[in-house]
Write a structure and sequence with these properties.
406 residues; alpha+beta; conserved putative lor/sdh protein from methanococcus maripaludis s2 fold; Elongation Factor Tu (Ef-tu), domain 3; OB fold (Dihydrolipoamide Acetyltransferase, E2P); 4 domains; rod-shaped; disordered C terminus
Length: 406
């Protein structure tokens, strides 16, 4: 038993020694294999750098591909200009003067000197009433006046010699004065036979013809309307009354009148009248302007558009109306920065001017704003700006229609 035990120990010792020898050989083989040449390290570094460069290049290409291209937009610069502060209203024209020609004496019309609907000047002849009876009355009055003057002269001589009484002299003076008054009255009646136009204007359709018997109690012979200047009647809403009262009496207060079709240039007149009370039914205040009308382009009762100019805004900032957009946060414009990126700028829009321009607060003059192409933009987006070409506008009625629907 003892011998077997020793043999077994010796075998175990040899086995352990063999295993340790084998492990040592493995370690020496690994150490020998880890000793690589320097060029291998250099090659590895070069390969790693190349792979890294290709990865970075690929990522840069992906980023460049993902960035959207510059958006084409039309732009223009904001401008500073003096513009009117106004109210746009709807109105009608009215004759500056309306005269109904009435016969002042009884008689028969023997002639007419105008065409219906023609223009007449002050002093032009319109009708002639038979003057013969009035001429005879005038001649009789003159004869009586001459006789009374001779009688008065005789009475003056007698009174100087104290031959007649004071009463006789006073009667002679009174008769002379009475006959002189009768002569003047007869002259007036004779003058009334020649009916003339009292104003410059346009005659309407006559109501009588030659041969008609006319007089103070008959219908008017014809009506004449004064057309230059002409009244422009309009109303101001009750809500705007406080603004209007603020500028009443100002030197810039004007009334601009024009036709809806734009066939005539706007005509600027003065405010003539504004009522002292609000009309209960409509909630408006009557107003009237006086408008020059030398060519008679405006006619009484004609429908017109009215721009009631209250004041002048000095150096107001203007941009095209299309530039102003509206979002949930309110009105805004896109402002183009020097690097061709856009900035969203909140603004406070004002009145429309000259058809295509709008007063804004929040933009400075000479800043570049986007006019078209806003739908594809966001703050910081890159744009390719092009000059904006405005559309053909300039009639104030373009804005008047929109303002009158407020």
């Amino acid at each position: 038993m003892k011998l077997n035990t020793e043999t077994s120990a010796v075998q175990t010792l040899h086995r352990d020694t063999g295993q340790r020898s084998t492990r040592s050989q493995v370690r020496r083989g690994r150490a020998a294999s880890q000793k690589l040449p320097k060029w291998a390290y250099l090659l590895f570094i070069i390969l790693a750098a190349f792979v890294s460069y290709r990865i970075l290049q690929h990522r840069a290409a992906e980023i460049k591909t993902a960035q959207p291209p510059a958006r084409p937009v039309s732009v223009t610069k904001a401008i500073a200009k003096d513009v009117p502060l106004y109210l746009d209203e709807i109105g009608t024209c009215a004759a500056y003067e309306t005269v109904q020609i009435q016969a002042q004496v009884n008689g028969v019309i023997i002639s007419r000197h105008f065409q219906d609907g023609s223009d007449v000047r002050k002093g032009d002849s319109l009708f002639t009433i038979d003057p013969r009876p009035f001429q005879a009355a005038l001649d009789q009055a003159k004869a009586q006046a001459a006789l009374d003057q001779v009688t008065l002269k005789r009475q003056e001589d007698l009174r100087a010699r104290k031959v007649i009484s004071q009463q006789d002299y006073d009667t002679a003076v009174a008769n002379a004065q009475k006959s002189q008054a009768a002569t003047e009255a007869a002259q007036v009646n004779l003058d009334w036979c020649y009916i003339k136009s009292p104003i410059n204007g346009r005659v309407g359709l006559r109501n009588v013809d030659v041969g008609n018997l006319v007089g103070p109690s008959t219908t008017p012979l014809v009506t004449i309307l004064g057309l230059d200047p002409i009244y422009t009647d309009f109303t101001v809403a009750e809500n705007d009354l406080s603004l209007v009262r603020k500028y009443l009496g100002g030197s810039n207060l004007k009334v601009q009148t024009y036709l809806p079709d734009g066939s005539i240039a706007p005509r600027v007149g003065d405010l003539y009248f504004i009522d002292n009370a609000v009309q209960p039914g409509s909630g408006t205040v009557k107003a009237r302007g006086v408008t020059p009308n030398p060519d008679h382009a405006l006619w009484p009762a004609q429908f017109v558009l009215v721009r009631f100019i209250l004041d002048t805004l000095k150096d107001a900032t203007l941009v095209p109306s299309q530039a102003v957009q509206v979002s949930q946060s309110g009105p805004f414009v896109f402002v183009v920065k020097p690097d061709n990126t856009v900035d969203l700028r909140p603004v406070k829009p004002g009145q429309r001017q000259e058809g295509d321009l709008t007063v804004v607060e929040g933009v400075k003059p000479d800043e570049t704003v986007v006019v078209t192409g806003q739908l594809a933009l966001s703050p910081g987006a890159k744009v390719a700006p092009e000059a904006y070409v405005p559309r053909n506008v300039g009639k104030p009625q373009d804005s008047a229609v929109s303002e009158s629907t407020r």
